[in-house]
């Protein structure tokens, strides 16, 4: 057991150690210094939103790459009309995807084995198996590694978005718009990683051998965005103060990389130094010489602080009025459903709503839940996908009741596992005395499934939590599904109660 654990963990430990060692070693290299100040090269200058102090603007202006670049550095709206850089963003995102696949193929024999066989048939079957919530991964994989993956995709998007590449925690509306944009890009790329043509489903057919849950589709972008926010907070309140006091290159490199690991990895995907920060003074060579001079002047009281955060301020005459009824709403919910014919399930879902009139919204929802209280070695789940309309007569008020109706489909799955057979097959595979190919789930389990039309109707109450969020305190719905019983799961009629957090877009 210990040997197998070391075999799996050793490549990761060695890779991380080599990355940190090479990065810090490279950071400690000193470039030749010149005495001529006009030859000073600063690849990025102190800038917004860590505003360049006025006393420092003159010398750094002389060494900026160009006057146009310097204007863009000092004016937060200079890149307001700059488009998103799709080609480099996709190139870096798929380079990262290829990196992850390379790691999987190097460390997972079952993934290498799955390369045998009919690619299209196995890929199609793998996608079709998607259901439920859990995917069988360990906690660290699902709730740490995958969110880090989402954050890396997010920072790849940010570094290729000129309008928002230099946002910082505290920038208000601009910061949250930037996070919505990175969330969209991360959702697309993480979905591709799970189900796309260059995914775990197509390379390794993960859903055919492990539990095929939705957790990665939902958790990677959402938890990844939370990781980005945490790193942004750490960058402003921990990294920036260090840079205001220290010029030691290893310390600066380590603080930037250790406190912002996913941003550092995104830099590598763009072939930049991991400690690179857009709009910030570098840490090597002439950059380090300038940093030491600035710190010495500040310590002696003859110069200002290197970086001092200044919140963005609205320009006079630019007051903007936003509607109180959100044009777009995104919802993440948790729910409990009891089947009136017997059985119950607990789960969650996500939905989106577009306002077509002040009191009416078009809505779409995908949700899933795990059937509970089943016997040992049995599992069941429900998946619903619906569209409909919602009536919100008091959408502009703090307390807003609503009624809604949706129609779509429902799939109920009941799986019976033979744990003893599974363990025997996996042991035989590991020992080389078992099957010639890695066992699939259908080698040790039987699956019963029903699909049918579904309808839900109900209502609830929203309480606004400022302009950006609302708490959907409760939503009680009756569900009707036109499908037969799936063994002891009788889901034709049910009552579902849910509570959720709503993000309102367009009201701030």
Overview of the structural elements:
By secondary structure, this protein is an alpha+beta fold. The chain is 40% helix and 23% strand. The chain is built from 14 helices and 8 strands. It has an 8-stranded antiparallel beta barrel with strand order 1-2-3-4-5-6-7-8. Helix 7 (139-159) crosses helix 8 (173-195), helix 7 packs across helix 10 and helix 11 packs across helix 12.
- Beta-strand level of the residues, as a percent range? 15-25%
**End-to-end C-alpha gap:** 54 Å
Q: Major β-sheet, in short? A: 8 strands, antiparallel, barrel
> How many alpha or pi helices?
14
**Approximate shape:** flat
Mean pLDDT: 81
**Major β-sheet strand ordering:** 1-2-3-4-5-6-7-8
| Helix content range | 40-55%
Low-pLDDT runs: 1-10, 23-76
Instruction: Round the Cα radius of gyration to an integer and report it.
Output: 27 Å
| Secondary structure tally: strands | 8
**Structural class determined from secondary elements:** alpha+beta
Q: Helices and strands in order, then pairings?
A:
Elements (H helix, E strand, L loop, with lengths): L1 H26 L26 H9 L4 H8 L11 H22 L1 H5 L5 H10 L10 H21 L13 H23 L10 H4 L5 H29 L5 H11 L1 H9 L15 H15 L28 E12 L4 E14 L2 E12 L6 E14 L7 E19 L1 H13 L13 E21 L3 E14 L10 E13 L3
Antiparallel strand pairs: 1-2, 1-8, 2-3, 3-4, 4-5, 5-6, 6-7, 7-8
Keyphrases for this structure?
508 residues, alpha+beta, eight-stranded antiparallel beta barrel, 14 helices, 8 strands, 40% helix, flat, disordered N terminus
